[in-house]
Design goal:
3 domains; Elongation Factor Tu (Ef-tu), domain 3; four-stranded antiparallel beta sheet; 15 strands; cell membrane; 572 residues; six-stranded parallel beta sheet; alpha/beta; 22 helices; single chain; Rossmann fold
Length: 572
């Protein structure tokens, strides 16, 4: 229970508060439209009125929140500000994309309810006009304002009106269709399979949020849903006058015809703050992207992994941070996130890019992907010089920034997910070269899971350097690392070892032998918990969601001897 509170307590609290506010707004606005002011509107629409307005209030609230988790500069500022006070609170900011998705799902849900309720509303509006009976209150209400159209209740003015035309010729109808289509495209293109296989589709359709918010702001300006005015309520109280509708406005009656008006638009009041904040965010990104960045070295690693070493004036980073990159000669619009693999102590910053899509393939070719040797800046060919000035936005903080805040650390990287830990391990190496005595971390357990042997090659040099450095300084126990080749079976590995007997591992060149298959995480956590009782162990993962679920469960279930495993996942 203690581990659950440490890992998930604040997240659960935030989610419960968010759900509570949604529930409160729904109930409150549902009840608001059961009041006397909306009595005549309910005569036409019934309960569909409240079912349309309640989700609209929740939509306003969630649309206010949806942009905040993607304000990267704001989150980095908040992370740095609160990290010194509460590491737990700072860790919640690393789940910004998860919260962004939850809010998006809530928007989709309330949008569906809102649309369905309004479809029923239009049916009732049309039905009131078609049932032409002066002894029917809905018909009488529908005829109010027919002459001057100043105080109507029913937006469908005649029985000849086509509801489809109303949908596409009114402000509310047209903007409703536009924002619904934009939302459908945004959500469907955000599916995992599309985002990973067709990132450009995800990237471009996500920018429909601009159209979505413009439509959202103007959606309420049509004031289609109308209620009785305050002045009219004083003269025509539904409790007294509803049954006398046939004599409304006639001589000798004390009940004049009711007057109606729509609520003033409110959505803009909810979203204008976040929209201004997001505009400022984009201006900051634009300013930083205009600062000159120069590629100083291009390294082509095996298995189509590209390393770019770059410099930018005033660039400062921490371990595990990431940047967004744009290469104008590949695309003028696309920005892609990459983890920094350099250490803060180095005089440059670097990224390792696995070639898996059109954009990365274009960058690979532009940087001379057919050449296997390292290329210094002054030796780059002419077509590469055109790409030497790249746009960089960042760096931005991640969970790995906290790595040196734990005395015992577990680093788990899967495939190219090892990149943030390259920065961590390099920084460790530099700190010990410089004999930095302020390193709080006393023990690092490093796990690297790769499917094929080629993936090890670009990172092996760093591990060999670390291994030699630790041995030379008598710190062999500081770093324990286990490298797993996940797609090899033990029988294949045994056959391989028989033909490659050597002191060092034949695949990585390290003294530590490569392991085969997948780790037994239960045994690993039990062993570490036994060795470090009464300690907080920081568990950092950069890898797939399935592995994150496994490690998070292990963190929650292993609390022997008072040890606490604090789970952190890279999420950008």
């Amino acid at each position: 229970m203690g581990n659950f509170a440490a890992n998930e307590g604040l997240s659960v609290f935030v989610i419960l508060v968010w759900l509570g506010i949604n529930a409160y707004l729904f109930v409150q606005f549902y009840m608001n439209f059961l009041t006397e002011r909306w009595f005549y509107t309910r005569v036409l629409l019934g309960d569909a009125l409240s079912w349309a307005r309640a989700p609209a209030a929740c939509l306003n609230f969630n649309c206010m929140l949806i942009l905040l988790p993607v304000c990267r500069n704001l989150l980095s500022f908040l992370r740095g500000s609160i990290q010194c006070c509460s590491r737990t609170a700072a860790r919640q900011l690393d789940r910004n994309i998860t919260f962004h998705k939850l809010v998006a799902y809530m928007i989709a849900f309330h949008t569906a309810v809102h649309i369905i309720a309004h479809l029923f509303n239009f049916e009732w509006f049309m039905g009131a006009q078609l049932y032409r009976n002066s002894s029917s209150l809905p018909f009488v209400l529908s005829q109010i304002g027919t002459g001057d159209n100043a105080s109507y209740l029913n937006p469908i003015r005649t029985d000849q009106t086509n509801p489809t035309i109303v949908m596409f010729t009114t402000i509310a109808g047209l903007t409703g269709v536009v924002i619904t289509l934009a939302l459908i495209l945004i959500i469907t293109s955000s599916m995992e399979v599309i985002r990973r296989s067709y990132f450009e589709v995800f990237w471009y359709t996500h920018h429909l949020f601009i159209i979505f918010f413009i439509g959202l702001v103007f959606h309420g300006f049509g004031r289609i849903v109308r209620g009785q005015t305050a002045t009219s309520l004083l003269e025509n109280k539904p409790s007294q006058c509803a049954d006398q509708f046939e004599s409304w406005g006639k001589n000798g009656t004390f009940c004049p015809k009711p007057e109606f008006a729509g609520n003033p638009p409110m959505t803009w009041k909810w979203v204008v703050g976040p929209m201004i904040l997001y505009v400022c965010e984009r201006l900051v990104r634009f300013y930083r992207s205009q600062q000159k960045v120069v590629i100083t070295k291009v390294v082509m690693h095996p298995s189509k992994t590209l390393e770019l070493q770059m410099k930018r004036k005033g660039f400062r980073m921490e371990v595990g941070q990431y940047v967004f990159m744009q290469c104008p000669c590949v695309s003028q619009l696309e920005w892609h996130p990459f983890t920094l693999t350099s250490a803060p102590e180095e005089d440059h910053f670097s990224v390792h890019i696995r070639i898996v899509g059109d954009w990365t393939q274009g960058l690979y070719e532009a940087c001379g992907g057919d050449k296997n040797e390292t290329q210094e800046a002054w030796k780059l060919p002419k077509y590469v010089l055109e790409c030497r000035e790249m746009a960089i936005d960042g760096p931005f903080g991640t969970a790995s920034e906290d790595v040196f805040g734990y005395e015992v650390v577990m680093l788990v990287g899967a495939g190219i997910g090892v990149t943030p830990f390259a920065s961590v391990l390099k920084s460790v190496w530099y700190k010990h070269i410089q004999e930095n005595q302020n390193v709080f971390t006393k023990k690092i357990y490093f796990y690297w899971l790769c499917p094929e042997t080629q993936a090890f090659e670009w990172f092996a040099d760093l591990l060999q350097s670390l291994e030699g450095q630790m041995t030379e300084k008598g710190m062999v126990d500081f770093l324990s690392y286990n490298i797993y080749l996940t797609r090899w079976k033990e029988t294949e590995a045994a056959h391989f070892r028989v033909h490659h007997e050597a002191e060092n591992d034949p695949i990585t060149g390290l003294k530590q032998k490569t392991l085969y298959g997948k780790p037994n995480w239960d045994n690993e956590f039990t062993t570490i918990g036994t060795k470090h009782p009464e300690k907080k162990v920081g568990v950092f993962l950069c890898g797939p969601t399935q592995l994150a679920d496994v490690l998070e469960k292990q963190c929650l279930s292993h609390s022997e001897a008072g040890v606490k495993f604090i789970f952190n996942k890279e999420n950008f």
